[in-house]
Design goal:
The chain is mostly helical. The protein is built from 15 helices and no strands. The chain has a single domain, classed as MetI-like fold, CATH 1.10.3720. The chain is globular and about 75 Å long.
Length: 288
């Protein structure tokens, strides 16, 4: 086969790949576009099924109403600003807490020798088979007994440990060359200094990748916030959207619901966009 024929085949393959990717983007982006369009029209237009494919002229009114009050003609909700603040506090605390606990526990398992070290690791590892949904009843009872019901602590503390992150950090620490450990000992570095000056800088990309995943995990929590909160002042954005939808399609202010949904998507999207380079590097880079 000639070079020109190979080039034409390669070009045709590239165009086919781009066409498939473009089609996939359109399929996934179209519902988001329609949600945005719906957030710029009035509820009557959506209720009649007359929603066009282009935005309306109620963008600022609908978003301002959802952000400041969350109340429409049929919906009595919590302001989106309050719910997003609650979700942000919860997501940040869960992500940072999981990373801090996991990296320290993995560091202890890898670099310290103490009785029951591997037993402790395997006990952590076994909890991978026990997600929150499986242990929801005893976890709820413990939180209530500790007086953490309907509080930020009750939202965050039961979800703050992560066996997955501990496992990933442990596997990463095992790949750090022993020469670095020996060099740190020769320089007189203790365990804390070695952790702070050597291990932590090497773990930055892994921390960034895990932060993105854990932030989205905390932001999208539904079951636990629904069980552990009662007051509107602690409602998260996912719970708020669910309550706004209710049960009857004809009784909803869909323009406000769609505006709330678009606003709820912004923080996770921004986290992924701004940390994309570190996220990808943390997943694929194996150089130390």
């Amino acid at each position: 086969m000639s070079t020109e024929a190979v080039g034409r085949t390669s070009t045709a393959g590239n165009w086919l790949a781009y066409a498939i990717l473009t089609l996939g983007v359109v399929v996934f982006a179209f519902p988001i576009w329609m949600a945005f369009v719906g957030s710029t029209w009035d509820a009557a237009t959506i209720g009649r099924g007359d929603l066009p494919l282009y935005p309306g002229d109620l963008f600022w009114e609908n978003y301002a109403q959802a952000w400041s009050s969350g109340e429409g003609t049929r919906v009595r909700g919590t302001p989106v600003g309050v719910m997003m603040l609650n979700s942000l506090v919860m997501a940040l605390a869960i992500a940072l807490g999981k990373i801090a606990i996991s990296i320290l526990s993995a560091y202890a398992v890898v670099y310290f020798s103490f009785p029951g070290r591997m037993l402790a690791f395997w006990m952590i590892f076994v909890t991978l088979m026990l997600p929150v949904e499986v242990r929801i009843v005893p976890t709820y009872q413990v939180v209530v007994d500790l007086g953490l019901f309907d509080s930020y602590a009750g939202l965050i503390v039961p979800l703050i440990a992560s066996a997955t992150a501990t496992l990933l950090f442990r596997q990463f620490f095992l790949t750090i060359p022993d020469e670095l450990v020996e060099a740190a000992k020769i320089d007189g570095a203790g365990p804390l200094r070695f952790f702070w000056d050597v291990v932590l800088p090497l773990s930055r990309t892994n921390i960034a990748a895990l932060f993105v995943i854990l932030f989205i995990y905390g932001w999208n929590q539904y079951l636990w916030p629904m069980l552990i909160t009662r007051s509107k002042g602690l409602e998260t954005i996912v719970i708020g959207i669910t309550k706004m939808i209710g049960t009857g399609d004809a009784q909803n202010d869909w323009n406000l619901i769609m505006a709330t949904t678009i606003l709820a998507m912004l923080p996770p999207v921004l986290v992924v966009v701004f940390m994309q380079r570190w996220f990808v590097k943390g997943l694929v880079d194996s150089e130390k």
